[in-house]
Amino acid sequence: MLAFFLIIGISFLAMAAMLTNMLGDYMFKQRIGQDRIGLEKWAVQTAPYLYAADTKELLKQTKTAGHELSGRVLILDTDGKIQVDSHNELNGLRFNYPEAAQVLINGHATAYGVHELENQANDIIENSIVSFFPESWVSISTASLVQSSEVIGVITLISSVNEMMQSLRILQNSMLMLFIIVAAVAIAAGMLFSNVLTNPLKELTRGIQRMGRGDFSVRVPEKGRGELFQLAQAFNSMTERIETLDNSRSQFVSDASHELKTPLATMKIMIESLIYQPDMQEELRTEFLSDVNKEIDRLSNIVSDLLTLVHADAHTMVLSRDKMSLAVVVKEAAHRLEPLAAKKQQELLLSLMDSGDMYADKGKLGQVVYNIMENAVKYTQENSKINVVLEKNGKSAVLSIEDNGPGMSQDNIKHIFERFYRVDKARSRETGGTGLGLSIAKQIVTLHSGTIKVESHEGKGSKFIITLPLSNG
User: Fold this and answer.
1) pLDDT tens-digit map of 351-401
2) What is the spatial distance between Cα 6 and Cα 134, in angstroms, rounded to a whole number?
3) What is the dihedral sign for C-alpha 409, 414, 415, 416?
4) N or C: which end of the chain has fewer CB within 10 A?
5) Bridge partners of residue 45, in order along the sequence
6) From CA 252, how far away is CA 422, in angstroms rounded?
7) Which pTM does this prediction carry?
């Protein structure tokens, strides 16, 4: 902000200086024009007298010219010596001012200059001028004296410009004072505006610093409108998402640790029993070892599912796409589940109204279909029916798996695809589930640009609907 006002101040000062210079140039041009007109007239009148060396008449003419032009008039010869002074003091002295040299040496018809005089000068001519013009500033105007197309001398007018220079100085001082006042007002207004502008930024900075210390619950006030309001909204939205992700991560670590700890604890108890009971019956020993083997399989499944989710989160899961039939995948899953369904006296009713030809990863989609159909078999009571329907809807294949099991509440449906979430935790562990299957299924379906959703009512069963795009690759 200070840099901004510094730039504005410098720009204003430069503009003021330019304005002063422009006004000064205009005043000088006006004065030069006036002096030149009068001097050129007297140059024509006095040239014949200088040529004729009529000193008496020349002095008379210079005095009249000085009175008319309100100044001191000198007549110089071609060597720059003063032949006639309207005040009759400097006759015979050389006039060493550049305005005379510009006419005599450089060949200019006229010349003009402004000089600041010193009160105690070493030069006789300057001391004489100071005595005549006690003011500080004088102008010197010169014009050539021409006779028969030949320069025979120079007529010089010395006049006071002190009033004009004082006017310029007053103007400069006024502009400087105006600049100081405007700058002071601008800085005061800028500081006030800066506080209004930077307070939200300061609050945002403090919020970012708190986030850097690990506090993801921080929020900043959403004040005003425009960019700062949008920035505050974006920051709060970001922190909310980060807080949600952090809570999810913590919950995920907690759930994963719990899931891994349970089979490990079970195995530890069983193995310790085998170690400290060497005379255990063979049948019981075999049963314990079988249970340990199951817990190892369960651990292996949890680790495998966790690795799958890690790859999905890191966007490193690679789909091995190829031409495949979704109907074939459904048949294979149903065939694998027939023994389990028969054990519970359930019917798997397939209604495949389309082949579901698509360009996809058959292995991963097979995992999705098997997982959802297996859940339907596991969590549906005995002597029930499970309907599996595959049909075409536009450019998509729609697979629905519906059971008439216990169903789910609306609150459970909101969390059903979250990791380690179980509707009935006790029954899920009994069936060997990890709580990751549906989360993995959602990730795989999403990678295939598809969708998965569930419709369920308590006591009326559940229906999972998978929609996948039909594509030839």
Assistant:
1) 999 999 999 989 889 889 988 998 888 888 888 889 999 999 989 999 999
2) 42
3) positive
4) C
5) none
6) 13
7) 0.47
